[in-house]
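Backbone-to-sequence.
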């Protein structure tokens, strides 16, 4: 018998899963704490801040210098967002990431060394955050991912 590897339906590019937002109830305390100035992974309907980049703006090529960045990246392609935040051009970058991916290469290559050295802070959030799905205005049934999330906080050294 042979094993056939398959991508889980929630992995890989998926506009419906990638285009999601946290509730104001979850975002407001974070905004009060970190005083964000730029939402770098947003869309017109899900941004949390007046200043934001959409997929059309390509935030990965834009300058984040001097910004206090909020980033809820597409979970199908996390590595480039962490790499960009690690360039440390922003005054602060806070990324909302799935907490169940710590074994993956991007976490082990990028986050874990900084976490161990004390240059990157990781805060695991309690429970499972509920997200508002693409184009929705409120949480609907079954919009809780099967994993918890964490904040990865990167500040210039």
């Amino acid at each position: 018998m042979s094993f056939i590897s398959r991508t889980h339906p929630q992995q890989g590019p998926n506009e419906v899963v990638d285009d999601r937002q946290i509730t104001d109830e979850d975002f407001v305390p974070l905004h009060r704490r970190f005083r964000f100035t730029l939402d770098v992974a947003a869309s017109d309907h899900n941004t949390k801040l007046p200043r934001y980049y959409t997929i059309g703006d390509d935030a990965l090529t834009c300058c984040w210098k001097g910004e206090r960045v909020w980033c809820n990246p597409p979970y199908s392609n996390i590595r480039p967002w962490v790499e960009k935040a690690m360039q440390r051009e922003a005054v602060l970058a806070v990324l909302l990431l799935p907490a169940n991916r710590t074994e993956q290469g991007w976490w082990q290559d990028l986050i874990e060394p900084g976490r161990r050295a004390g240059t990157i802070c990781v805060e695991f959030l309690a429970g499972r955050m509920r997200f508002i799905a693409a184009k929705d205005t409120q949480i609907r049934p079954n919009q809780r991912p099967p994993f918890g999330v964490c904040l990865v906080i990167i500040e210039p050294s």
